[in-house]
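Hi! If you just cloned this repository, the fastest way to understand the data is to look at a raw example. We've pasted two of them here, unedited. The first protein comes first, obviously.
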Amino acid sequence: MQFKDYYETLGVEPSAGDAEIKTAYRRLARKYHPDVSKEPGAEEKFKSINEAYEALRDPPKRKAYDQLRTRGYRPGDEVQAPPGGFGQQGQGGFDYDEVFAGGGAGGGFSDFFEELFGRRRAGGFGQHPGAQPGRGPQPRSDTRAKLAVPLEAVYRGDSIRIALGGKTLDVRIPKGVREGQVIRLAGQGERGGDLLLEIEYAAHPKFEVDDRNIFHVLPVAPWEAALGATISVPTLGGSVDLKIPPGSEAGRKLRLRGRGLPGGSLVGKDGDQIVELEIQAPTPHDLKQREAYEKIRAAFAEDWRRE
C-alpha cells in the first residue's frame, strides 16, 4: 500500500490544531463537493479530503498516523504493514472494526487507511480479544464495531446498507440517535454472536454537530451583509430561506429553530441550526467589476479601519 500525507491533503502543517484542521476540511469540502464542483476529478479529491479529515480529527487515529509518519515516508512510498497489523504495534490499540455506510461522507477509503486503522482483519470482523487461533471452534461471542452514519440518516431515521465480514446488512438508524448509542443485530456477529454497532457521526462537508444543534458556515457577499438579503441555506431537511439583517458583521450567528437533530422520544426537544456568517469578497473578473471595487475603496478609504 502507498503512504498518504493527510496533512498535505488538507493543506495544513503537522502542528495544526483541531480548529485549523476543521477549518481546512470545511473549506476544501465546500470547494470539491461533487454536488457543486465542476472541476475535473472533484469526486476523487473530495474522497481524499474526507479520508484525511477522518484520520486527523480523531486523537487516537491521528496519534497512530503521526507515529507512522515519523518514519520518513513520503506520498507514494510503499508501506509494509508489520506482522499482526498496525493496530497491534502500540499505535492506538484499535481492537474493533469501523463500518461506513454506503454513500456517506466517510465511505470509499483507501487501502492505506483501512490497513492503518484496523478495518481489515482475518474473517472480516477483527479477532475477539479472548480468541486463540488454531485451537478448534471458539465459543460464541459478540462483535463490536463502530458505524459512521451520515447526518441525513440520523435526521430522517433512514435504513442504511453496510458491508461487513462478507455480509451485506440493512440497518435501521433510529431517528435522532446519539453518538455512542449501540444498535444490536442479533446473530450477525462472529461465530453466531450478536453484532453491536456503536454510532458515530460521519464527517460532513457542510455541517458540524454540538449536542442536538447543527452548525453551518454561510458565505455571504459584502453587500449582502451590509444591505441585508434573503439567502437559501442548506439544512438536513432541505434548503430554507434565511433573512440576513442589514448591517450584519462577519461571525454573526443566526438561528433556525427546530432545524437541528431530532430530540427523539427520550430527549424530546429538537435541536436548532446555527448559521454563522462568513463574509467573502468575490474576485473581480473584468474591468467593470474592478472599477466597482475602486468605487467602494474610494467611499470607505477614510474611515473603515477606524470602525
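Ok, and the second one:
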Amino acid sequence: MDSEIAQRRERAQKLIRDSGYEALVLSAAENIQYLTDVTEPSVHACSVLIVTQRSRPALAVLWLDEEFARKQAKDVDIKAYTGYTQGTIIIKTLKDLGVTKGKIGMDDISLEVLGNSLRRSSSNIELVNVTEEAEGLRSVKTEEEISFIQKACAIADEGMKIALESLKPGMTELQVASLAEHHMLTLGSDRLKHPTILASGPRTKLPHAWATQKQIENGDLVTIDLGAVYNGYCSDIARTAVVGKPSTELKDAFNAFRIAQDTVLQQLRPGITTGEVQIVAEEATKATGYRLLAHVGHNIGLQVEEHPYLESSTAAGSDSKIEKDMVIALFQGSIRAKQNLGIRLEDTVAITESGAKMLTTYPKNLFFQ
C-alpha cells in the first residue's frame, strides 16, 4: 500500500482507538480522497468509507461508479450498491466488520444520509459527529500536499491578476469574476470550491458577497476573494481595489490592515496557539486606531476552510497549536473605525520551522486606477 495513504489511515485508526469508536463512517469528498486516494468527483458524490481499527477499509460506491473506484482506490474493499440498497449495504458491511454496537464516528454528510438507517438497524449503536476531528486528521500536510496547494496558489495569483486588470465602470461583478474563473480553469484549476467573492460599492461590507449582476461604477471600492483548486487542494487570496482614486481614509485603513497581517505573519510559527494569533492581530490593529472584524483565518487543504480556525478560545473552545506543515489562509474579515470599511487582504501561507512561507505571491497593494 502507498506509504502516505498508510500513514493517513494509521492516524484515522488512532482517532478510533483514542476516542473509543468502533468505526468511522465518512462521506465527505475530502475524507474519501484523503483516505483512499480517489480523486474522481463522481465517486465522491455517492461514496461511503468505513474505517475500523483492524480491518481493511471498505468503500461503498454506486454501482455505476464501481469501475472508476476500483482503478483509483488504494487497498480498499469495494462494495457496490444500487440506488435503493445503500443503507442495507452499509449496515451489512459494518456487521461483516464486527461493528454491531458501540460508538460510530460520522461526518456531517454521512450522518444526514445514513443516520436514520443506522439508528434503526440497532439500538446498541451510538452515532457521534466527527466532522471536526476528521478535518483535524488532514491539518498537517505532507510535502506533496503542500506542492499541490502551491500550484493552486500560483493559478489563483493569475486569476487575481486578470480580475484586477478587468475592473472598469460598466462591467458587472459577474463578468469580472467569470473572466478570472475561466482563466484559472484554463491554467489547470480542477474546479471552484467556493464561488468567487467580487463585491463593489456598498456590497463590499457583506461577508459573503458572491458576484452579482451589479454594475461596477466609477469610484467604487471593489473587493475580490477567489481561489483555484489543484488535484483537489485549495488556495485562497483576496485583494482590494478602487475604480478611481482612493480617499486618504481608505488608504490609511488599508495600510493598517496590511500592517496587522504583516505582524501576524511575523509571529506565525510552530507552537503558537490560535488564541495567541488572534490576540496579536487584534493588538496590531488596535495600535493603528482600528478594530479587527471576524477571526484571523483558517486552515486550508482539501477544503477551503478547515479546522483549526485562527480564533481565540472564547469563541472556539480550547486553543489549538499551530504545527509545522500546516497551511493557513489569513486574514479573514475586515477592519473598522466607526463602521465596517469593506477591505479584504488574504493570503495562503505554509508553516515552516522558521515561520510562515508565502504561497500566494500577488502584490498586496491597494489597487487603483
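That's it. A detail worth noticing about the second one: The chain has two domains: 3-137, 143-368.
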